[in-house]
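Good day; I would like, with your permission, to put a structural problem before you. What I wish to show you is a protein chain and, alongside it, a tokenised description of its three-dimensional fold. I would ask you to consider whether the tokens describe a fold that such a sequence might reasonably adopt. You will find the record immediately after this paragraph:
***
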Amino acid sequence: MSLKIGIVGLPNVGKSTLFNALTKQHAPAANFPFTTVDPNVGVVIVPDERVEKLATFFKSEKVVPTAIEFVDIAGLVKGASEGEGLGNKFLSHIREVDAIVEVIRFFPDPNVIHVAGGVNPLEDAETINTELALADLKTCENMLSKAKKDAKGGKTEDILRASALQKFYDALSAGDPARSVELTRAEIDVTKDVKLLTQKPILYVANLDEEQIKDANNIIVQFKQKFVSVVPLSIKIEQELAELPTEEQKIFLAEYGLTHSGMDDLIVAGYKLLGLITFLTTGPDETRAWTVIDGSTAPVAAGKIHTDFEKSFIFAETINWKELLDHGGYAIAREKGLVRNEGKEYVVKDGDVIVFKTGL
């Protein structure tokens, strides 16, 4: 499963620096607009204590965590929907990701240029969201015009498509994002090719300086009232942290009153933003985290291990990871009746440890 999260924002808000800290890569980062033209892509491991604890208990020879991809996309400016700056390139790149992390500058620094002349987090977020909505409105208008003509032919699929596009257009015209639109199952099926920017789930990163991070919750309170899903970070601290040896990181974090890297919070929040959950397989040979979309059934999960497993699925032996550890492993858990045999209709839960039984 290759799901991508695009890192977006105005120029000079810390996008590439965040990407570097996240991926331990070195994408260019400089104090001028459009340093990033072509998107950088990095695979990031999702921190998960469950994997470590299971691997330790079973003395696994191999440990495989789950991961997601982050994409660093060029900075957007006002007028991007009309082609300003790198507008068209920016919009085409963001169309290809599955979710958006929007970096918002909170830090004051006269040495770092702000394209709008001054730091205003609420206004900056509105600028980006407005450009995405305007681009969507254009896309939707063009598609709707064609869909209405096609619908005159009387085909059910064409009528449904026109209906769905009209819902999107009406919402966007009213200033609401496409993600606020509720479609029927049939409408979703006939609009799978419609890639609207404001359909994508969004998470905001509040980029604070070293002093602001100490009072992060108070500083972002007004912004959070409007935009809700916000992760406060000092990207500068995270960048320095990423360059330190592991043994020095805790000491460094303590200087700022922090207990752990904010990157962990961001990665986990990004994973949830994509609507993903983790199930696990474990034993002496290997402990591995597997990614599935929330709501997936046991056969679909089995198919992540091997495509033939989905077709030949019989049942799944399932237990919560903590229950498995609390009761000292499979043998005792089975004796106590804690390992359940689940069939084809079972919906996998986050943290399930599963042994699949197949006809192969």
